[in-house]
Amino acid sequence: MQKKHLLLITGGNHHDFTGGGKIISDVLKQSGYDVTITEDRHALAGLPGSDYAGIVVYTQGGHLTPDEEKGLLEFVKSGHGFTGIHCANDSWKENAGYMEMLGSSFKTHGPQAEVEIESVDANHIVSRHFHPFRLYTELYQLNGDPSGFHTLLHTNWQGKMEPVAYVKPYGKGKVFYYSLGHSPADFNHPEWRKTFVRGVRWSTGLEEKPKWMRGLAV
Length: 218
Known about the structure:
The protein is α/β, with parallel strands linked by helices. It has 5 helices and 11 strands. The strands form 2 sheets. It has a 9-stranded mixed sheet with strand order 2-1-3-4-11-10-9-6-7. 45% of the residues are buried.
């Protein structure tokens, strides 16, 4: 079976997108994917009809042109995968179609702190056999209607259970959002990596490991 090809879009403010993007790309490659990484948003316009199985977005701020937004939404809606990391929901907030697809937007965050990540759904491919873990990170609090997505992981933040990872359909496509990912320290945590790769696999239709992924840890 041929490896699946992913587009990884990075770039923006307030985060180490160069270092973080390289780690994310390496994690995906180690998990058996082919990865093209770019900061060029215009790559989104060419997604329909491409050979990409899915897109991973690790960006902050900015906006999309009508052609870029249309290309992205048509791509996902037609049956491809979308994975958003951390500040993906603080990106392109003026693009209403993108925000509707994603399902949440950045509300605020407090100071970095240690949080404990727990599973909500022990049966989903992404969160089954999940081991709760602690992470010192910048926790996003989200705007959005929780009934519009299916929460997989959450954490107790100041007495409120805050979604950390969720999934939702978009047309024939699948959306996975993971709010953790502020710094390379997040990306280097083994449980972050496991959950992230499972989310990408789920979004691109790989519920079980194909031959090219056998022997891998995730």
